[in-house]
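Weekly sync, protein design subgroup
Attendees: M.S., D.O., the rotation student, P.L. (late)

Item 1: inverse folding check
M.S. brought a backbone from last month's batch and wanted to see whether the design step gives back something sensible before we order anything. D.O. pointed out we never logged the input encoding, so this time it goes straight into the notes. Structure tokens as presented (127 positions):
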């Protein structure tokens, strides 16, 4: 993994500490890198009405977009758990909205995987 992606993953790992996950206990952090080099982070935020919860990836992307950023080069996801997972289907669709070539790095404390959103969401819906 390049130094750049390592640094992005470190931001995601820090963001996982802010997770509000009293229901699942699953603490997730994410960090999206913009073409201009800026980074926006997000964490999962759960709700007693479960379906209102938001994933870390979408929290990070929505933060960036609401600050005027749309050109993303990579997104990192860190889960503070022995279980490791790639982004959920909803987050894949949202990442893909901003480019099929975006790098995706997901990790937990002992494993890291690198891929692209095109690989994770073949045949994506787009307008
Ligand atoms: N979660 C994420 O933050 N990202 C994903 O890609 C999948 C799941 C969160 C949502 C919920 O707070 C918890 O993990 C368990 O599903």
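Designed sequence read out in the meeting:
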């Amino acid at each position: 993994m390049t130094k750049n992606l390592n640094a992005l993953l470190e931001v995601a790992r820090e963001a996982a500490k802010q997770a509000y996950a009293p229901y699942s206990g699953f603490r997730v952090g994410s960090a999206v890198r913009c073409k201009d080099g800026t980074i926006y982070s997000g964490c999962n935020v759960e709700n007693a009405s479960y379906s209102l919860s938001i994933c870390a990836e979408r929290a990070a992307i929505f933060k960036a977009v609401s600050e005027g950023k749309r050109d993303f080069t990579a997104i990192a996801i860190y889960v503070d758990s022995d279980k490791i997972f790639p982004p959920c289907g909803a987050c894949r669709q949202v990442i893909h909205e901003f480019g099929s070539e975006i790098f995706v790095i997901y990790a937990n404390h002992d494993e890291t995987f690198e891929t692209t959103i095109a690989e994770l969401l073949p045949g994506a819906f787009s307008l």
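Discussion: Residues 21, 24, 26, 28, 44, 46, 53, 55-57, 87-88, 91 surround tetrahydrodeoxyuridine (CB under 6 Å). Residues 3-16 form the longest helix (14 residues).
Action: P.L. to compare against the previous round before Friday.
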